[in-house]
Write a structure and sequence with these properties.
This protein is globular. It contains 3 helices and 6 strands. It has one domain. It is an alpha+beta fold.
Length: about 110
């Protein structure tokens, strides 16, 4: 049986425990990130490239997708960031996870 060309290959699903572990390490819930966006004026933010007003937080199976950005000084130290994308021109904005934790009064280790 041949595969239809218009069908996208399915991406593998991550186990729920792995998603929960990443979310715990992130130390922020989707609700806390959303509240930060509302409280800090992101609702009125316009893209500096195209002037668009519609941004999307990258999610995977309902969890924010953190990026690891390795520093030039050491490949063993990385900054975690989450990203939002302009839905009009694909401009990408990075937000520092440690700074978001600080601004939302969350402990750096993600604990309570």
């Amino acid at each position: 049986m041949s595969e239809r060309k218009d069908e996208k290959p399915k991406s593998p699903r991550l186990p729920e425990e792995k998603l929960a572990a990443v979310s715990h390490r992130l130390g922020l819930t989707l609700e806390e990130i959303d509240e930060f966006f509302r409280a800090s004026g992101w609702a009125n933010y316009r893209c500096e490239v195209c002037g668009g007003e519609n941004f999307q937080l990258s999610l995977f199976e309902g969890y924010p997708v953190p990026l690891s950005l390795y520093t030039a000084a050491s490949s063993t130290h990385a900054l975690w960031a989450i990203h939002v994308t302009c839905n009009t021109c694909a401009n990408l904005k990075l937000l520092s996870v440690p700074k978001l934790r600080e601004l939302t009064n969350k402990p750096v280790d993600g604990g309570e």
